[in-house]
């Protein structure tokens, strides 16, 4: 019998690292002028219309088996991976679908792009939810739509954050796919075979947001925009790094070292961002990953305090120096001298 998960249960604590749902200023979005980059938008739209993955997300006979051979720990970690991934994809679907509806009259090209991206995200979320069904679970997506809290982001923040989340998604999926292609003995479930084509959807979505950013030079060529680009690069990288530090056992189960995996994904995403953003982070600075390691340890200590402490006052007092250290390290990372990226996309020191 299948158990339906209501992801926003009262006893589940949301944190800064939890997948979030977003809304934005739709009137500002509708007023954006994209005419300076129209050719690129038309090319991206043609890619979306081609729908290269129309026949890709179809379950085959390899799914038709019992997964009881997975030990309980690996099974639990994998289910958590599916749940978080499904929630993130469904969040993208809701945002893109609403943007498509709101922009249909004022910016039909952008609206259609959002509509076709929502198609992709719905396909991903549905495929993940069917995978959860193999473990007798399913996310209640209707409940999720109604009950989830929405975070407001101004359009430019949506552009920065979503561009990076799509590009980092590409590098996460393709890195896992290439690893398991070389080491199929670690492929604990057939969904990983779909990651090569899947990541191309993420890449195309990232290209769309790159086109949006390039059509709005005020989001890239000012001092304020450079500061925001640094902020979102660090936010996306640190969120992934801290999340994955808590899930090293999952990566071990598929034959990966979580830290080395994250380092590779961050390097590749930083290179991709350098082709669009006016700055990139200096990930070659030996202190960069040392500081992220310290942040991950401090965040892990905070989580352990939540689990172990029964006295709320003692827990808060014990957390205070950890919060101070974590914030201090994040500030050190933010103010680390960035790399300036010329318009050619070549990174220079």
UniProtKB/TrEMBL annotation:
This enzyme's EC code(s): 1.14.13.81
Biological process, per Gene Ontology:
light-independent chlorophyll biosynthetic process; photosynthesis
- Its annotated pathway? Porphyrin-containing compound metabolism; chlorophyll biosynthesis (light-independent)
Q: Which cofactor does it need?
A: Fe cation
| Primary location class | plastid
Location in the cell reads:
Plastid, Chloroplast
Q: Name one GO cellular component term.
A: chloroplast
InterPro entries, alphabetized:
AcsF (IPR008434), Ferritin-like_SF (IPR009078), Rr_diiron-bd_dom (IPR003251)
Q: Which Pfam families match?
A: Rubrerythrin
Chemical reaction(s) catalysed: Mg-protoporphyrin IX 13-monomethyl ester + 3 NADPH + 3 O2 + 2 H(+) = 3,8-divinyl protochlorophyllide a + 3 NADP(+) + 5 H2O
Residue ranges occupied by any Rubrerythrin diiron-binding domain in the UniProt entry: 80-213
PANTHER family for the chain: MAGNESIUM-PROTOPORPHYRIN IX MONOMETHYL ESTER [OXIDATIVE] CYCLASE, CHLOROPLASTIC (PTHR31053:SF2)
- Which NCBIfam families does the protein's record reference? AcsF (TIGR02029), PRK13654.1 (NF010172)
Query: Which purpose does this protein serve, as stated in its record?
Result: Catalyzes the formation of the isocyclic ring in chlorophyll biosynthesis. Mediates the cyclase reaction, which results in the formation of divinylprotochlorophyllide (Pchlide) characteristic of all chlorophylls from magnesium-protoporphyrin IX 13-monomethyl ester (MgPMME).
Q: What is this protein called?
A: Magnesium-protoporphyrin IX monomethyl ester [oxidative] cyclase
Source species, please?
A: Neoizziella asiatica
């Amino acid at each position: 019998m299948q158990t339906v998960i209501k992801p926003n249960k009262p006893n589940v604590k949301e944190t800064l690292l939890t997948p979030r749902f977003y809304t934005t200023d739709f009137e500002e979005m509708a007023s954006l002028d994209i005419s300076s980059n129209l050719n690129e938008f038309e090319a991206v739209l043609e890619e979306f219309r081609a729908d290269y993955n129309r026949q890709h997300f179809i379950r085959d006979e390899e799914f038709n088996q019992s997964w009881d051979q997975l030990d309980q720990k690996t099974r639990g970690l994998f289910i958590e991976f599916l749940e978080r991934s499904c929630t993130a994809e469904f969040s993208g679907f809701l945002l893109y679908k609403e943007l498509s509806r709101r922009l249909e009259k004022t910016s039909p090209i952008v609206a259609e792009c959002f509509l076709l991206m929502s198609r992709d995200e719905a396909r991903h979320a549905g495929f993940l939810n069917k995978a959860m069904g193999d473990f007798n679970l399913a996310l209640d997506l209707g409940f999720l739509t109604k009950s989830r809290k929405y975070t407001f982001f101004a359009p430019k923040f949506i552009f920065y954050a979503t561009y990076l989340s799509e590009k980092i998604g590409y590098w996460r999926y393709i890195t896992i796919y290439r690893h398991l292609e070389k080491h199929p003995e670690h492929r604990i479930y057939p969904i990983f075979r779909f990651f090569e084509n899947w990541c191309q959807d993420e890449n195309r979505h990232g290209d769309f947001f790159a086109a949006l950013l390039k059509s709005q030079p005020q989001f890239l060529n000012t001092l304020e925009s450079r500061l925001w680009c640094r902020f979102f690069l660090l936010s996306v990288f640190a969120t992934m790094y801290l999340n994955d530090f808590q899930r090293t056992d999952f990566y071990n189960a598929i034959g990966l070292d979580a830290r080395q995996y994250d380092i590779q994904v961050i390097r590749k995403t930083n290179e991709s961002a350098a082709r669009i953003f006016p700055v990139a982070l200096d990930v070659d600075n030996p202190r960069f990953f040392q500081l992220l390691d310290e942040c991950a340890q401090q965040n892990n200590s905070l989580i352990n305090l939540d689990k172990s402490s029964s006295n709320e006052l003692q827990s808060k007092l014990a957390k205070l120096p950890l919060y101070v250290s974590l914030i201090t390290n994040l500030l050190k990372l933010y103010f680390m001298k960035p790399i300036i990226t010329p318009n050619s996309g070549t990174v220079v020191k």
